[in-house]
Design goal:
Elements: E1 4-5, H1 20-41, H2 55-60, H3 66-69, H4 77-98, H5 100-125, H6 136-149, E2 154-157, E3 161-164, H7 165-182, H8 190-242
Antiparallel strand pairs: 1-2, 2-3
């Protein structure tokens, strides 16, 4: 379990108002989990089966909505607690820096990309009728972005071992990659985790470059307009002063 320091090297958690995107993701995920839990108590939990990610259904029906809805279902208390804790911890800074629209675009891209990887892996290696649920693919995408954008931040891994965010991401990525190769039978979809990180990396190295280029061009255009206006104003002032007219306040 990670534990982040935002200033210096002393571990600390930041408590403050949640940004809109993180807040509503937390509300929706937790609310659906409570509904799932109550449905299980009365024996009607199968009503959520159509929202899980079934590779065969996605490829044959096609139930494309499952690439989104599977992210809002969780398999137990520990599953949702870890994901929501990581969403709050890593997502808060990202949304504050990116803005809600950019943050949600990245979150869903990683989650949907993770689902696509699960479907493709099931098609190639088998498991077409094994459902996948959980937001871990999107969460691992957030983890990657946090390590890339705030590489020097200190994370207390398991609340004990201080480590810089960039190394933490490398370790988690390596473990996830090796676990996906080993075909872990723990019930954890390491392919989804790895897929979320891969799509997040592609977006950060390609999509953000285009985003930054557009912003740079806009800033350059505004600077050119300001410079042009300044030159016109200076010409006007020189002409005005040459006539000996007084300043009017």
């Amino acid at each position: 379990m990670p534990y982040v320091s935002r200033r210096g090297i002393s571990p600390a958690l930041y408590f403050g108002p949640l940004p809109k995107g993180v807040k509503w993701l937390l509300i929706i995920n937790i609310s659906l989990f409570i509904v799932q839990f109550l449905a299980g108590l009365v024996g009607i939990s199968d009503i959520f089966d159509g929202l899980a990610l079934w590779p065969r259904a996605v490829l044959t029906f096609p139930a494309l909505w499952q690439l989104v809805t599977y992210m809002f279902l969780h398999g137990g208390i520990s599953h949702i607690l870890f994901n929501m804790f990581a969403l709050w911890m890593f997502g808060t800074d990202l949304e504050r820096d990116w803005g809600t629209t950019h943050f949600l675009r990245y979150y869903f891209l990683c989650g949907i990309g993770a689902g696509v990887c699960v479907v493709l892996a099931s098609r190639v290696f088998g498991g077409m009728d094994i459902p996948t649920i959980g937001s871990s693919g999107a969460i691992f995408g957030l983890l990657l972005a946090f390590g890339v954008l705030y590489p020097e931040r200190i994370i207390l891994f398991s609340f004990l071992f201080p480590i810089q965010a960039k190394y933490f991401v490398m370790i988690i990525g390596a473990i996830t990659f090796l676990s996906s190769l080993a075909g872990s039978r723990s019930g954890v979809s390491h392919v989804a985790h790895l897929g979320g990180m891969i799509f997040g990396y592609i977006y950060l190295t390609k999509g953000c470059m285009r985003f930054s280029l557009r912003e740079s061009l806009q800033r350059a255009y505004h600077s050119w307009r300001i410079g042009r206006a300044r030159k016109k104003f200076q010409v006007y002032i020189r002409k005005h002063n040459s006539k000996g007219n007084p300043w009017v306040n």
